[in-house]
Amino acid sequence: MDKALTKNPTVLSWLAEKLALVNPDNVVWIDGSETQLDALRAEAVASGELAKLSEEKLPGCYLHRTALNDVARVEHRTFICTPTKEEAGPTNNWMAPDEAYALLAGIAKDSYRGRTAYIIPYSMGPVGSPFSKAGVELTDSIYVVLNMSIMTRVGQAVLDTLGDSDDWVRGLHCRCGIVEEDRYICQFPQDNTIISVNSGYGGNVLLGKKCFALRIASYQGYKEEWLAEHMLILGVENPQGEVKYICAAFPSACGKTNLAMLIPPEAYRSKGHKVWCVGDDIAWIRKGPDGRLYAINPENGFFGVAPGTNAKSNPNALESTKKGTIFTNVVHTLDDNAVWWEGLDKNPPANATDWKGNPWNGQTSDEKGAHPNSRFTAPARNCPCISSEFENPQGVPISAFVFGGRRAKLAPLVYQAFDWNHGVFVGSIMASETTAAAAGAVGVVRRDPMAMLPFCGYNMADYWQHWIDVGASLEPEKAPKIFNVNWFRKDENDQFMWPGFGDNLRVLDWIIARCEGKAGADETAIGYLPKTGDINREGIEHEVSLDSLQAMLDVDPALWRAEADGIAEFYAKFEGNIPVEMRQSLEALRVKLG
Length: 594
Ligand code: OXD
Ligand code: MN
Description:
Layout: H1 9-22, E1 26-29, H2 34-47, E2 51-52, E3 62-64, E4 78-80, H3 85-88, E5 93-94, H4 97-108, E6 116-124, E7 133-139, H5 142-151, E8 153-154, H6 156-162, E9 168-174, E10 184-188, E11 193-197, H7 202-205, H8 208-224, E12 227-229, E13 232-237, E14 243-249, H9 256-260, H10 266-269, E15 274-279, E16 283-287, E17 293-296, E18 301-305, H11 315-320, E19 326-328, E20 331-333, E21 338-340, E22 352-353, E23 359-360, E24 375-379, E25 396-404, E26 414-416, H12 420-428, E27 431-433, E28 445-447, H13 460-472, E29 481-485, H14 504-515, E30 522-523, E31 528-529, H15 546-552, H16 557-572, H17 580-593
Helix pairs in contact: 2-5, 12-13, 12-17, 16-17
This protein binds oxalic acid (OXD) and manganese (II) ion.
Residues 230, 281 line the site of manganese (II) ion (MN).
């Protein structure tokens, strides 16, 4: 075994126990140095775990393919292991901790035999920031080490900052045989512990991301009076150079990474408006000394979906992948030793290997070359619009929270909640209609409160109460305002009515003006809506008529009455544990709808 990088007794004793269980041939501490990472890259290339891509086209970039049965997060095999089922709540899978530890120990036992154990000390958030938390991940995968080195801050500095503290998250990852039936992603919030077995796919094994920064951290936030949210963070700069920060939560397939890296439309850009990305997936939020809420992005990179990313949809994300990036399950283009995915451009390669590793001719094949959930792991500092505040240990002050979903007819383009508690209600009723992109019926409403359904590490009713309590701790004029957006409203011909992408800034513009008390609104049953004249249409590329805008802002009482019934049905799952403030909001909505 390498010389330990820390004397922290809790780290050393946990490692000793887990190493005895998994029984590796070698043990390597990850110190965060480029020399060590380079050696690991070379080893992974030699073993075939990674392919080195063209140094000329994609410097420092690699390609990885997962097992065919291991391509996405597995929600049905993800468990919250709290002492009682009640603490996990009706929206999580639950297993009793003793049962889970015993089951997982049986699977993990001797699973590193003949392999090397890598000990990754990492920080979620800039090292030393009051928002940040440390973790240690024990893994038998170089792919995990290299991805964690992009997605988090890794190495000696993390352990030096941790000192002898016990406030760190234990993470054990065992690849085992990638057996689907024995795949488990278990979180033990009371023990600050994560155990993930039988997967090598990022979302299941980069334990700093969903497992720690959302599931464990949401519970830590509940206990320590802060919030861990599935939210992007962006800064909107006006021509005077003032930047306002917005946190936004969307279910998957709603363009979250695109919004986080939005390019202002020409009419705005030419006047000096800019958008800065602080984060594209996760926000950790705390009250600052001035009584406002501040957010940091605990991650250090982007683990983005590749298909659909292109020079038009998200040039900033595309540029972020041009160096130091690991691609997973995309197409390998053989003529130039680079990568391709559906939606990158209209020129699929003729001479390529698909995500399964088979020869693939993109010009004749009916099959997709890249897996629909293929990914890039790119360093955040590559992003052309990364915020100057990205590393700010104090975070950025939040002006607004934005929730959103994909609703063809129901939700208007944008509305503002009446107040904080009503905003919590608005977040709790977030939902998306299923699209043809996923298997199953189209247009089915899937509830995904605050986009946290698969990520809340405790009872969602307690989580909502925590949101209400955070609001109560803020002076009303310092509390962020809360909004809901819907970029996906459709007309009677089933066509999207709003152009989306850069033009979404026009909606953010109204949101910021509302936060500053500078824009008008109409009061409706569901919240405050802009008047058509309040949304700036100047220079909009795809003409949006006033009538069309009016239609996008329409609130149909019949549809909303049916929605209220759907919400009541969803709330009934929580057996009377819904915070009273939310029940009152639902009641008030019903009364106003008549
Ligand atoms: C993600 C997700 O990968 O939300 O970010 O699924
Ligand atoms: Mn996400």
